[in-house]
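Contributing new complexes? Match this layout with zinc ion.
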Amino acid sequence: MKILHIPCLEDNYAYLIIDESSRDAAVVDPVEPEKVLKVADENGVVPKLVLTTHHHWDHAGGNEKIKKLVPGIRVFGGSLDNVKGCTDQVEHGDKISLGNEVNVLAFHTPCHTKGHISYFISSKGEDPAVFTGDTLFIAGCGKFFEGTAEQMYQSLCKTLGSLPKTTRVYCGHEYTEKNLRFALTVEPENEQMKQKLAWVKHQREANQPTVPSTIEDEMGTNPFMRVDLPELQNRVGCSTPVEALKEIRRMKDNWRG
Ligand code: GBP
Ligand code: ZN
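Output block (do not edit by hand):
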């Protein structure tokens, strides 16, 4: 499979996923359908599926338009999330196939929104990929608009944290540089974070994305995924993973970097 980034709006990413054997394609959060369809056209594919991570307009706001531009396209989205233009509601564990070789598995990852879905994509002989919308960002996580720290802990550290370490992580926004600068205020001596920040600055200066990461990388550099570590809990004055997650989110919400 091939995965292409499509920068949209200020700092959003839509993605085009192509099954090369059948030339079938899916798009994740196509908020600017014309941009996405241009990339699809350049690659000789017409998308058959839309995978919507959550109901916010900067993710689902292009669904009605892409349905007009691509008649028959199916629009997937979380059943608890009131996704615009949704034709197929998905629940945790639902499977969708793309072409002959690509399988999509839906995971309910609530908290940023109630019905947020992350899509895990696999194809034989390749490292899998997960599209995490605004639940897991590279070195960060989404704001808790419609859920609790308990839910975010389950979504981030259990559901996404149990995926294979080599899983490539594709998130909904380019927030990595700011996230890592914040992360270093929590763990100033984390060498892996420092190295990643240097790479991220280099990428951004060259106008290149910092996505994808991997689950393994996130375990080393994402403070919100590191809350099981007692030393991190101590550092933020907490004694459980959920308390630490809540506290680090509160710190980030108040941080003016
Ligand atoms: C910044 O600090 O750089 N631009 C600001 C942050 C996701 S988008 C903007 C922000 O708050 N982003 C959201 C978030 O979760 N950020 C994580 C973080 O700052 O650590 N959105 O566009 C946001 O979800 C939205 C749309 C929100 C509709 C509510 C509704 Br309703
Ligand atoms: Zn959002």
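Reviewers usually confirm one structural detail per submission. For this one: The domain at 2-254 is CATH 3.60.15.10 (Metallo-beta-lactamase; Chain A).
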